[in-house]
Amino acid sequence: MKKLTVLSAAIALSLSVSAQAAEELRLLTWGGYAPQEVVDLFEQETGIKVKVTKSNNEEMISKLKATRGAGFDLAQPSQDRITSAQKAHNIYKPLDLSKIDSSQFIQSMLAATKDQSTLGGDVYAVPHVWGSSGLIVNKADAADIQDYTDLCKPAYAGKVTYRLKRPTLIGFAFAMGEDPFAAYADKDKYQQIMEKVGQKLTDCKANVKAYWSGGDAMLNLMRSGETTAAMAWDAGGWKLNKDNADINFVAPKSGALGWIDTFVLPRKTKNEEAAYKWINFVMQPNIAAMITESAGNFTASKGSDAYVDAKLKAQYQASFSPADIDNIKWYPPVPAGLEKIEGKILDRVKAY
Amino acid sequence: MLVSSSTASGSRSRIKLGMWLLLAPLCLWLLLLIILPHIELLSFSLSDPDEGGLTLSFYGEFFNEPLYWRTFLRTAIMSILATALTLVIAFPVAFFIAKMIKGRSKGILFAMCLIPFWVSELVRTFGWMILLRESGVISSGLQWLGLADSGVELLYTDATIMLGLVYSAMLFMVVPLVSTLDSLDDSYIEAGYDLGGNNWNIMREIIIPHATPGIVSGCIIVFMLSLGNYLTPVLLGGKDSLWFTEQIYTQFITRFNWEQGSAFGILLLLLSSLIVWLGLKVTGQSFTKTMG
Amino acid sequence: MQTDAIDLACENICKHFSEFTAVDNVSFTIPQGSFFSILGPSGCGKTTLLRMLAGFESPTSGDILIKNKSVLDVPPNKRPINMVFQHLALFPTMNIEQNIGYGLRRQGVAKAEIAERVAAVLKRVGLPDSGKKRVDQLSGGQRQRIALARCLVLNPTLLLLDEPLGALDLKLREQMKIELKQLQKEFGTTFVYITHDQSEALVMSDQIAVMNQGKFEQVGTPHELYYQPKTAFVASFVGDTNRWSGVVKSSVNQEDHQTQYQVTTNDGLTLDCVSQSSDIPVSSNVDVFVRPEAITVSLSAMDNCLENQLECQVENILFDGAKSQIIAIDKQSGGCITAAMPQTADFMGLKAGDAVYLSFSAKQALSFSEKQGEMNASL
Ligand SMILES: Nc1ncnc2c1ncn2[C@@H]1O[C@H](COP(=O)(O)OP(=O)(O)OP(=O)(O)O)[C@@H](O)[C@H]1O
Ligand SMILES: [Mg+2]
C-alpha cells in the first residue's frame, strides 16, 4: 500500500515536472526583437522556453487570420495594423493592463499606442520598438539626396533601390506635397493621390536598379556600392554606417515615416501569463538596451538610453535633428480597403 | 455448384476489401492533401466577403484587369520558353548519358545532375545572385581579365530568370529523357544507319519518336515547375518581372485578399492544365500514352 | 544462278578488343547469289564478324572487299549491305509501310514509287495487306518476313542475317528455314547468315563456314562438312556423333590413299578407323568420331565385313519417330554409344536390357590427332 502511494506520488511529481518543462511562449515577432541572450536570460529567470518565429506585418496578420488567432501566444504587429485587422478578422485579444508594469514605459509613447489601439473600449496593444523609414544615402556619391523624390533625379539612373510596398507610396506622397494620412478616411481622395504617386514611380523606374524585398538584399546593394541611395529603415542605415562612414540614414525633408511595433495577444493565446511576463521582462531598461543593440532601433522602455551603446546614440543624433524628430509622420491606423488600392498601383508600377 | 460459386464470390469480395484497404491511404492522401484544399480554394474564390453568397467577381477581375491576365500570359510564355530551352539543353545531355557512355561514368554523370538539388532552392538562387551581381564573381572576373572596365550587371533581367528556371528544372527533364533513351535498343539506331539513314534523320525519325513519352512528360513537369516557381523570378527578376505566383502570394499575404488569391490559384490550375492539354493536342500526344 | 562473280571477299580480318581476340585472321570469299552461313558456338565471334561487314566495327587488321572494292572507309549507311538484326529492330514507332519505306526515303525515291515498291515487296513476302499495321500487331514469323522485306526492298548486294530465327519457336523456325531459302532464291541476293544451329545451316546454305574461337575451322558445302570434316571440332559440332579418345597402335596404308589406323581407346576398345591425314605417328593420342546413322544394328553377331563390331546392351530408347535412337552400353568397356534405330520390323519390339550388336566400317570412323582435339576440349 505504501509502495503504491510512493509510486503515485512519483508519477504525479514527474507529471508536474514535465508539465513545467513544457511551458513555453510562442512569440511571433520581427528579426532582432528576441535575441538569444535575452531569451536565455528570460528562461533562467522564469523557466519558460521561448519559441521565436520571425516575420513581418503582413505575414503576421495572414498567419493569425489563417488560424483565426491561434498558434502563437504573443505577437508584435505595427501600431497601424491593429484596429483595422481586429475589425476585419477578429484575431486579437484585449490586454489586461493591470498585468503590465506601465512605469517601465515612456509615458507619451504608451499613451499614444493605447489611444491608437483602442477598439470598443478595450486596449489591444502596448508599444515596444519604434523606428522610422527614410533614406539611406552614400554621401560620397549622392550628397544632394534629401527627399524621396530626389531618388528620381536623372543623375542617379540605375543607382537607386526601394521596395514596392506601401511605405514607398506614402513617403513619395508626402514628398510630392500630399498628405496621404489625412486622406485615409476619404477613399476617392486617397485613390487620386496614389494614382499620382504610381505615375511618379513608373517614371522613376529607370533609376531603380532593383526593387529590394528582403532587408539583407538592400544592405548588400548599398554595401557593395551597386546602389548609392535607398529608401529603407533607419536601423539599416546605422548598420551600414558602422562599416562605411559615408553611408548613413537621412531623415527626408518631408519627414521620416514613424512606426511603433507593439505587443498584442493573439485571440487564442495559450499562455497569457507568460506573455505578460515577457513584456515586463523585456521592458526593463537594461534588457531593452540589449534589444536595441540587436534590432538597431530604440524601444519604448524608459531609461534604456543610458545602457545603449554611445555609437548608436551618435548615429541617431546625426540622422535626426530635433526638428526632424518633430517632423516624423507617425502611421495612423490603416482603415480596411486601402491595401487593395495600394496593391493595384504597386502591381501596375511593376508591370509596366 | 452453388457452394463453389458462393465461396468464389466470397473470396472475390475479400480480395476487393483487401484492395480497398491497400488503396485507403492513397485515397486519404489524395482527399486530405489535394482535393480538400482545392475545394477550400474554390469555395473561397466564389464567396462574396461583403454580402455573403456566391460571386464570380474575383474571376471577372482577372479578365477585366489587363494587369492580371497579362501577368499570367507573361508567366506562361516565359515558362514555355524555359521548357523549350530546358529540352534543347537537356536532350544532348540525356543522350550522352544514355547512349554514349557506359558503366560507372554513367552513374557518376547522372549523379552530377543531382548535385544542384543537394541544397535548397533559396540557397541555389542566392548562389546565382552572388555569381551574377554587379559586384559579383563573374563581373569581377571579367574586369580582372580586362574584358570590362566597370562592373557588369547580369542580374535582374528576364534572361536571368530564364537561367534560374532552366537550371532548377534541368534534372526533371534529364531523368525522363534518360530513362526513355535508355530503353531504346542500340540496334534500332544501327538499323537506321544500316538502311541508309544519317545522323539527322535517325534523330528525327527513330530517336525522337521513341523518346516522345519522355519528352512530353519532362516538358509537362518543367512547365508546371516553372509556372509555379516563386523564388527564382522574385529574387533574380528585374524591375518589370511580375510572376503570377508572386501575384497570388501578394493577394494572400500583403493584401489579405484571400478570395482574389484563391480565384487566381484556381485560374492558374485551370489555365495551366489548358495549356498542357493544348500542347498535347498540338503535338498529337495523349496524356495516358505519355504516362503509361 | 550462281556465277563466278565474287560479291564479298575478306582478307585476313582480325578484331581485337584490347587483349581479347574476337576474330582471328579470317579470310573467305562469297560468290554472287549464294547463301553463305557462318556456324559456330555462342561467343565465337560471329556477330563481331558480321558487324565488321556491316560497318559498325572496323577490323583491327585485314581488308573487306565488296565487288573487288575495299569498303573499310565506307560508313555503314553508304555500304551496299543491309542487315537483319538478331532481334529484328523493326521500328516500333512506325507502321509496316513506313518501316519498309524507311530506306527508300533515305535514297530520295519518289513517294509514289516508294508506295509501289513497298506494296510489291510486301506481296513477295506474302503479307500484301499488312502495310498499315503496327509492328506489335504481327506474329513473330510475320515480323521476320517484314524485317527481310525492309532490307530486300533496297536491293542490297549483300544481306547479313544475325541469327534471325533465334527468337522463334521450334515449329516456326522449321517453317521459316524453308521460306528464307525460298526468298533468297527468288530475290537472288547474296545472304550471309549467322547461326549456332547446325541444322539451319545445313538446310539452307550453299556454303558453310564453321567458326570456333574467332577462327574459321573449315569452309565447305553442307555435304563436305558433314561427311568430310577436316577437324575434330567440325566433326563434333556438325551433326550428332559418338566419340572416343585413344592411342594409335598401328597404321596401314590403304590402296585408296587413305591411311587406316588401329586405335586403342582409353576405355579399352580396339577400333579400326581412317584419317584424312596420313602422318599420325604410332602411340600418339587421337579422337575417333562415328555418326549414329553410320552404325549398323543387329540382334545377333554378324560375321560380315565391317571392321568394328561391339556387343552391347540396350540402355534406353529415345523415341522420336523416324529419328529414334538407341542408347547402348558396350559390354567390354561399359561406355555409352548412340546409334540410329533401324526402321524395320525386327526392331519394333526392342527394349531396354536387350542385347544388340553395333558394327561400323573403318571408313565411317574418322580419327583426328589430339592436337586438333584440344581445341574443343571446352565443348
Ligand atoms: N565490344 C566488345 N568489347 C569486348 N569484347 C567483346 C565486345 N563485343 C564482343 N566481345 C567479345 O567477343 C566475343 C565474340 O562475341 P560475338 O558477339 O561476336 O559472339 P557471337 O558469336 O555472336 O555469339 P552469340 O552466338 O552468343 O551471339 C565474345 O567473347 C564477346 O565477349
Ligand atoms: Mg551474336
Notes on the protein architecture:
The complex is a heterotrimer of chains A (352), B (292) and C (379). Chain A has helices spanning 2-21, 36-46, 57-67, 83-89, 107-116, 139-142, 166-175, 187-203, 215-223, 234-243, 272-282, 285-295, 310-319, 322-326, 338-351, and strands spanning 24-29, 49-54, 74-75, 92-93, 118-119, 122-123, 126-138, 160-162, 208-211, 229-233, 247-250, 257-263, 265-266, 298-299, 329-330. By secondary structure, chain A is of the alpha/beta class. In chain A, the strands form four sheets. In chain A, strands 7, 8, 9, 10, 11, 12, 14 and 15 form an eight-stranded mixed beta sheet that branches. In chain A, strands 2-1-3 form a three-stranded parallel beta sheet. A two-stranded antiparallel sheet of chain A has the order 4-13. In chain A, helix 7 (166-175) crosses helix 8. Chain A starts with a helix and ends with a helix. Chain B is mostly helical. Chain B has one domain: MetI-like fold (Orthogonal Bundle), CATH 1.10.3720.10. Chain B has helices spanning 2-46, 57-64, 66-100, 104-114, 121-132, 137-144, 158-182, 186-194, 199-228, 231-236, 244-253, 258-282, 287-291. Chain B starts with a helix and ends with a helix. Mean pLDDT of chain B is 87; it is low at 1-6. Residues 372-379 of chain C have low confidence and may be disordered. Chain C has 379 residues and is of the alpha+beta class. In chain C, 23% of the residues lie in helices and 35% in strands. In chain C, strands 6-7-8-3-9-10 form a six-stranded mixed beta sheet, with helices on both faces. In chain C, strands 13-12-11-14-20 form a five-stranded antiparallel beta sheet. The chains are: A alpha/beta (352), B mainly alpha (292), C alpha+beta (379). Chains in contact: A-B, B-C. At the A-B interface, helix 3, strand 9 and helix 15 of A face helix 3 and helix 11 of B. Residues 46-47, 162 of chain C line the site of magnesium ion. Chain B: Its main location: membrane. Chain B: This is ABC transporter permease. Chain B: The chain crosses the membrane at residues 20-39, 76-97, 109-131, 159-178, 211-231, 262-280. Chain B: Keywords: Cell membrane, Membrane, Transmembrane, Transmembrane helix, Transport. Chain B: InterPro entries: MetI-like, MetI-like_sf.
